[in-house]
Amino acid sequence: MEFVSFAERHIGPDAHDTGTMLKAIGVSSLDELIERTVPGGIRLGQALQLGRPLTEREQLAGMKAIGARNDVFRSYIGMGYYGTVMPAVIQRNVLENPGWYTAYTPYQAEISQGRLEALLNFQTMVSDLTGLPIANASLLDEGTAAAEAMLMFLHARSRDRQDAMRFFVDRSLFPQTLEVLRTRAVPVGVEVVEGDAATFEPDASYFGMLLQYPAQDGTVQDLRQVTDRARSAGLRVAVCSDLLALVLLTPPGEWGADVCVGNSQRFGVPMGYGGPHAAFFATTDEFKRQIPGRIIGVSQDRLGRPALRMALQTREQHIRRDKATSNICTAQALLAVMAGMYAVYHGPDGLRRIARRVHGFTVKVANIARDLGYTVLNPSFFDTISLRLPPGVTDAVVRRATQTRRINLRHVEEGVIALSLDETVRQQDVTDLAAALAEACGKPAPFLEDLEQPAAQLGGQERSSEFLTHPVFHLYRSETELMRYLKRLENRDLSLVHGMIPLGSCTMKLNAASTLLPLSWPEFADIHPFAPVEQAAGYQLVFEELSEMLAQVTGFSAVSLQPNSGAQGEYAGLLTIRAYHLARGDEQRNIALIPSSAHGTNPASAVMAGMQVVVVKCDELGNVDVEDLRAKAAQHAERLSCLMVTYPSTHGVYEEAIREI
Fold first, then answer.
1. Is the pLDDT of residue 84 over 70?
2. Which three-class secondary structure state does DSSP give residue 138?
3. Rounded to whole angstroms, what are the CA distances from 464 to 185, 238, 441, 516?
4. Residue 280 and residue 303 in one domain
5. What is the pLDDT of residue 479?
6. 289 and 313 assigned to the same domain
7. Is the whole model's pTM more than 0.90, yes or no?
8. Chain mean pLDDT for the chain
9. How far is CA 654 from CA 41, 336, 593, in A?
10. Exposure pattern of 589-616 as b/e (b: 16+ CB <10 Å)?
């Protein structure tokens, strides 16, 4: 039996098409083409051991089997990741629509007006909810966004504070964010100091601070005095926050924060075991030339009509290179479009309804817990409560009661649990939570109908300002209206549904429809990243097999899947090289040789990794000038840390001299 292979469907050209193209460029076969373009010294002598290729049906059946190994519980773990409802109109018309997911980075504004408007919606949403005038078009994740805020404050120090190298972090910060901060701080010489913001006394050795609002334990507190004290001492203040919480809470921009960052995931983007999600970054007008990432701005076309474009690009790595404010480039544009359209679809009234329902259910669970003998450790909250267990009740007993109901809570420490509710919670979920808490302490489950309508417990931080006042957030309430709006925007873009895009870049990868389908399956979409690892056996298998395949393809012995983009991958590689030299006692080795033809992220990442960039010349064809490389390697031999090359080069060429290089 013969089946159509995945490659035949996905790649497209048949034997006749291939022959025509080969004839046009003057070669007789693909083998001859490779012979003439890929240096013999780098070609593999044997086939990769990757197993038999699958058909599309086999691949989908295999993914179904892998997904079945994941065990989807109701996860109320929180910590920046929450259940959400992706509107079907957004799933069908954005996430699963190649008109949105195959378009190129919008460097050419004339063929990108649809996406630029969608990203401007995202920026407007973030700016309104955070109370800050400027927002970018997304970053990679919340931890990265917080680290970018720290580095932006570092670079913005005044001349009289150049010796300030300490950054204060409140102990209520999510632990994963703190770990990213620590990783990013070391190469640039910053000391991260963790403590209690309420008692922190800033001095001249600090240049900034980072707060969490609401706090990790769920507490909603008034941070005005903390912020005022820090700013009066010359510190910049950044805040990690939650967009849905800011629907009801006073936004950081209204109490003096310089930056607000966070994750837009709960605006209709599934948890997906941790990503990908679009982080957000909002700041004041003072930092508009230091803010990382893309900014979409309103301009005019040649006829004077309003038009959109990427603004203030001279900050960015593709222009400033080693002097860029960040190595971030495209970030999570598709997820930002989805989050922005979630706000367009629901509007301010819909978001208030969702936020009030989440808060109301949380208050109800808090009241139930108190009645059962639990101590609510944070009297003010939005969606998260921390509970001390009643005397005699152990963590193990609580785990049994919740696990039998397929519920995940966060076990903070012995005797303390926390739970975070979300948009997906309904009355039955609250009933099940109440039953689990009651069973754990040996009491009958309460009748929820007997409970009074809960009063808000937002700690006096209720929001009074309006948000999402632009007409775009009020026009598209029905599915048909939003579908038509999305189609109008899509038709103003050029993507692979219209024709070939003759640009080469790390972003130009077309994923086949069959490989994207599992993204929407609940067995992959609804797993919390901090769920017990045994509930994610399917994901673990994917990680294991993918790592093995990538190691086989690259020729390395081990692979990290952690970096969230090419820029983050090269940064992780540079940190690995830096750690290697430090382990050998070669602290002086901090010179990175980088060709002038390299992608802008390369020198930007090297600087972030604490290295000094030395540029190597290239010839008129973009190839590395080997003699200049040899001279500079000799000149910096004592301090040489690494050589960073792109292969094939940014010109699309496999350089003949790569082994010599």
1. yes
2. coil
3. 37, 22, 40, 42
4. yes
5. 97
6. yes
7. yes
8. 92
9. 11, 35, 19
10. bbbbbbbebbbbbbbbbbbbbbbebbbb
